Amino acid sequence: MSDPAATARRLRNARLPSLAVAWALAHAPGAGAATPTTGFDDEVDGYRQACIVPFFEGKSEDASIAAIAASAQAEDMLSRLARSAPPNWRALSDRSVPVEQRLQGAVGLLGMAISHGSAYEKRVAAVYSALYFPVPQSEACQRPEGLREFLDAHDFWAAPAAGEP
Hints:
Helix content is 59%, strand content 0%. By secondary structure, it is mainly alpha-helical. Helix 5 (61-70) packs across helix 7 (99-116), helix 6 (74-83) crosses helix 7 and helix 8 (119-132) crosses helix 9 (147-153).
């Protein structure tokens, strides 16, 4: 059994500056910036710029985290990120810690990957944001196809496959 207080401390200590960095998820250049992009990368970047940015713009950190927490996909995102994570990040899937606190850690982690990570980390983090951020879908805002399949083939914590950016 895990100790909820210790898990919360680990998440707090591992957590990166949350929303300021997290908004890099929506405002940073495309996932493939500084590397050749694919049509998929362009679709993901276009979706982020057209749909994610306007949805979260002007929302407070608490409101943004609450919107993500209320989505049916929040636990799936946390579980997927924690699956092959180093020990200090596995607490993302510990349900004894409030989901909002775990999401602050996850959003901060993805934001740091977008703003300071390798090309591979930027690309995978951008796909996480496109798949899991709960932007209302409309004719103008349709998630690109293949996001889940991309994440199935690209572990956030793994090194990129040979020949991949």
